[in-house]
């Protein structure tokens, strides 16, 4: 079986290295990288714009181009998150937590170098998993019904709620606020419009891109409105400064491996999305760290783990899409649509009926990620020079691109008002020392938690015991209770230490 897979992979490299296929793969990586940097213009916008182009293209170059845009925008989104605190793609909101503080310390190039290494390593692991472990991961994915998905998302919510710096209660409060925001719009089960306050624009709910841009981009600009100088005047511009030191590589290695494993596991489960993956990997790193209080101040692990999980999931996401015809997120749904446009039906027969597409796509992942590394080495000076732009120019320019990017998602001016509203809310919360990252996690997971909870109860006729009767679900529920117990135990230990030290215990 292994020898056959290697033979098929060699055939895929032959397809991917054909000149016209290589050209379109490079075009996709380049466009994805550039658009990923622009605020609000993620892979979804880029693929939506270029999808009509695939009507007149051959199937193989069309899919290679769209795939290149997908993983190219992943790295481009990290650039904006690290250098400007602008998560162009919502999964990179977690990268802002430690990537942007590294930039303010003059280590923006190092953060981008770590991101590049983690992205290539995680993508390579994801490709290997696609080649050898696709049948196993597909079988595992079939075991996850509404009960299991609810349980794992419950664990993700609890982990993410306490991942922020400061009081865990503040993190829980922000997660609950995000859950409330996720309830806005039409209920998928009953068709009832909830919390829209009579505004027809809210019938489809709040926009994820608008919330992430407002909470992370606009809020930071409002907090720094009087700063007229560059973010970091001593930022190094040399390409060699992007090379991490041996100590930094050692610090990033284990988080990179753990993030890759998290992304691989989540990639096999349709519907989970990359945003959940990055939040879970960041929360995992913070929980197992000996210095969790330093997260949010420029920790390399806080950049390496989420970026690795995002890139490994990006590759493994193609498994359920290509082999089952089940897209993992909106971007995968567009790529699935591109296949259908070409008259190709995704499913178990795709590998045998269209081996040039399947194996050519897998080979192009390695080629595209190598192109991405080569492309960004000369461009690193351009990205870091963004930090030399005075704030009086950078501020209005970034707001302009945010407005254009958010407007392009739905062609609605109402989305721009959403960005402004959440920008003001985010600035107030930051001023009050609340972390805004759990809001995004609650918003993303909330609707899926509710939907799968109701589906599970519908299947069990209202019997709550179903969540502990199914083995996989029971393990995740037990892990959730263990996490709560650990948080309570940690709080009790802090109270005891303060009392022994004779300090006045302040409320959490």
UniProtKB/TrEMBL annotation:
Family matches, as Pfam families: TctA (PF01970)
Origin superkingdom: Bacteria
Residue intervals of the DUF112 domain: 22-441
Residue ranges of the TM segments: 21-51, 63-84, 111-134, 140-159, 171-188, 208-231, 324-345, 357-384, 390-407, 419-445, 472-490
Keyword vocabulary terms for this entry: Membrane, Transmembrane, Transmembrane helix
Record-linked PANTHER family: TRICARBOXYLIC TRANSPORT PROTEIN
Protein name, UniProt field: Membrane protein
